[in-house]
Amino acid sequence: MPSETRAVPPVPVEERLFSLVLALLATESGLTKNEILSTVQGYRQRFEVHGDNASLERQFERDKDDIRELGVPLETLEAPGDPGNNQSLRYRIPRAAYELPADISFSPEEITLLNLAAMAWREGSLSRESRRALLKLRSIGADTTEPVLGYAPRIRTRDAAFGPLSDALARGLTATFLYLKPGSAAARLRTVQPLALVQHQGRWHLKAFDQGVGEPRTFLLSRISGAVKLGRQPLELAPGDYAAEALAELDALWEANVAEIEVVPGTDAAVRLSRRRGAKLSADDVISLHFTDAALLADELSGFGPEVLVRSPDHLVEAVKARLRLAVDVNSEGTGGDSDGR
User: Fold this and answer.
1) Which of 99, 102, 141, 244 is the most exposed place for a label (fewest CB within 10 A)?
2) Architecture of the domain defined by 257-332
3) Inter-residue contact 63 to 17 (CB < 8 Å)
4) Is the pTM here over 0.70, yes or no?
């Protein structure tokens, strides 16, 4: 009897990003794009040795942006004898960026707890697929070392709404949920026909036809509150590449919105923000930063405190000031002083 061909199950995005970070941490000299796509879990399943891997390369480009967005210091190295050739570029994550400062020490009790945590991490972090990928990297000559299992890449897990919305999309059902728009006092009930789920700049978005307004809308999954309820009768979906449309719209929004942010040199904010996709650092320590959502960026910038000063646009300046004033009010029970936005 002829053997049956089994479909390869899709690799969850978190596992793919983790595997990418793990592989790039495990090599000092870095890996080429071809080595990554042919060996790393989540890519190699779709890699064709002599085929067209254009869609896989685009996936890798988005994944690079996502892990940089999460603060992972991904470096790009040019081959000494082949400058300017993108195919010979090598990618790596320097271990030194994850090492603790020399002046940090732990008590015996803290070391015991850290050892216990490392044991638990060691059991669950390096899967059979990850070990297989490391062996394959060694077989092609990559100078990999056993990764330090204490590294725990901060890969954002999927939002709670992802599962039911993915189910609704696969079955052609409507979805109803509460959605809180920035600036709104309360969440509003939305009933939509899902068209696509896409990840952009490390966050999941739903492209859907909003039945309440009669037009397509894009929703940020992290703003969906409560349970997602699915309809019962399947709806016919008009043909179209809705995922590509959603990503193109988000890219256009990201390209159009630029913030000017003054940073204190050497701080966490300076390091993280300057490594974002498209970020430009000027001589006077001002970073030009693209963004898609002012409310999300304001939340993040306010968390840096005095390390940043937002110069523009005005609505982002006001949003950061409002968050800092709220923090002062909460911490001083309404008797705190004014904040200047820095």
Assistant:
1) 102
2) 2-Layer Sandwich (3.30)
3) yes
4) no
